[in-house]
Amino acid sequence: MLDIDDIANTIKNTDNDDIANTIKNTDNDDIANTIKNTDNDDLKAVFLNIGGASYNHLRGFSQALSNNGYTQTVDISKYLSSAEISSRGPLQYKFADKLTKEGVKLPEISTSMNANQ
Question: How far from 67 is each of 38, 58, 71, CA to CA, in Å?
Answer without folding.
Answer: 39, 14, 10
